[in-house]
Design a protein that fits this description.
Rossmann fold; 2 domains; six-stranded mixed sheet
Length: 253
Amino acid sequence: MIRAEHITKTFEDNHVLKGITAEFHPGKTNLIIGRSGAGKTVLLKILVGLMTPSSGKVWYDDLDFFNLDKKQMRTVRMQVGMLFQGSALFDSMTVEQNIRFPLDMFSNMTAKEKLNRVNDCLERVGLGGKNKNFPSEISGGQQKRVGIARAIVLQPKYLFCDEPNSGLDPKTAILIDELIHDITVENNITTVINTHDMNSVMEIGDKIILLHQGEIAWCGSKDSVLSSDNETMENFVFASPFLQKVRETAMAR
């Protein structure tokens, strides 16, 4: 589990986060949503340790993350997988080399063990046999799958995904959502997803945190979204006429 306690973040006079307290549970897809400028990207960066909070604490289980020494922090980081918004694959490396990169950096596996682990991950994301392809030779959706394979190659306890559906067509986005959700459940991973995609919210939102002006405006599951009477949540979710019609249909049943 990951727990944020009273997290604040200030850039000069700009108070981006204003006392965020939240828990992110294992085996669940925990989604952070909100409009641009709400603070969700800053919160994700703080949770993953890419940015230090102005005040507050982040706990990884019983470990106070920002008070760990370098050795302890490295141990925690080895248990973290990260899926970046643009996949962030190395263009000069093959698919196999991209996925193997964390193993080369952090493991003592033999070459054969690394290859076996890479192949296992490729099979899990449905890309078996793509080892020797370069990122430029596969589609955007496949690149995202390679990014997922790399994120899970060290068998992480914690997985962070930054806008995993960015730039993908709706069908591929659904497949990526399902893949992330299934991997989360199968491996009991604490998964935190930063997204603005309402399809993701409605499909895999085990826990949803809505940020608004640096504060938590609403928290719940996908099952409680349509029945929410929170004004900020309503304005965010039902901004489009299509979703408004979905809500009206659901409420009429």
